[in-house]
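2 proteins. here.
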Amino acid sequence: MNPLHNRRQFSRALAGGMLLPALSLPATVQAKDTALPVPASLPAAALAASRQGEPLVLLVTLPGCPYCELVRRNYLLPARHSTGLPAWQLDISSRSTPLTGFDGKASTAAAQIKALKANFTPTVLFLGPQGQELAERLVGVAVPDFYGAYLDERLAQARKALLAL
């Protein structure tokens, strides 16, 4: 069999597999039912989180991103509802929604994401009261079966780093 043909079949199967999570829910349901809140001020959100002994958990997202939806629906929203985890989201394409940055200046989500160098979605950041990263960021969803363990590990690291501040 032609090796090029096999690669094309593999590429098609891989692309099709990536689209399946997005096809499982209508876009309106995804955005409305699983959106995390958007902070008006990063310093205020981070300070409130640190007062709870928690890092500011910030999801960098993109509308229509099936992996962002997976992270929100299966991990961050349940943790927010059950334990009060201060999880928020910023849309990487939002250039008009006002947001106060960690420098105290008026900005936008897109500008803050660029400043944080979080150019891939989904990215989960674990930030301290001054905007410092308290644990290694989670970039993408490489192995969905282990994502919860990776998230728990990063949260534990971030909480420990927060206590040391």
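next one coming up
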Amino acid sequence: MMTGTHLVTGASGYLGRNIVRGLLARGHKVRGLARSDASADRIRQLGAEPVRGDIMDKASLEAAMQDVVALVHAAADTEHGRPTKAQDRTNLEGTRNVYDAARASGLKRAVHISTEAVLLDGRPIENADESWPIPQKPAGGYSRTKAGAERVALAANGSGMDVVVMRPRFVWGRDDTTALPQLVAAARSGKLVWFDGGDYLTSTTHIANVVEAVRLCLEKGRGGEVYFITDGDDIAFRPWVTALLATQGVDVSAVKSMPRSLMALVVNAGELLASLTGGALSGPLGRQEYATVGNTVTLNIGKARRELGYAPVMSRAEGLAELEAGAANA
């Protein structure tokens, strides 16, 4: 186990704060990058050391990395809507700043949190391993900028610094402030629909399994390599979302299905409208969102099993029970 202080970017976000908890539980000293007083307070409450800084500011990054032995770069703009200059800056320029500062600080080890979204172009993805090509025409700004960030991270590998990339899919579980609240809001507002019945398969990754994979990447990951991480088994999208929302007391039995061909027309019309109005107007679902939830996306985690010894530590049934218990006690 690598001893010494670990720095986590995005430490107050959903992924970041769970990674911080996991590192602290294993006895590491953890420093969390904080852009605001509120973020610093959240990091302090976790038991980590907050350090003020911003991934857009190299000087603050280099200061934060003093005496750090390992980095987990979890900060990102995860907006799935239309591409923005802010997302480009955060995911591309910010990531470049992080690894430039890491190299300048003499860091030896880094784990880069990427995503399966780097592969998305709107077509089905079935049992993809790490050799699956990144598409020439990505689904949207999130896919494009995260793919670019991954390239930056991999280019930083070498000359004494190992950079390991991990790609989880559909992160869920306790303390979720991202996907689950959005699904609940969509269901309660009547905006949730199933595409072609929702019977296509998806991979998922419980937050506890993400944390376990970070540990293994830090300890065993090969520099310059990419690893898919999931819950280890796939599930049909509609039963999965139905079970997930049921933990929050949301009944989706009345949700209707829409033919995929019709949804494609709606998405394309919305994208055209947004383009013509500079984003002032848009459709109900963008191309990035549709590519994320509207088609088969399943991943092969054989490489992580072989090279990292990865095995899920939280089953889907256990994670759902944990969510249901948390909602009941809220």
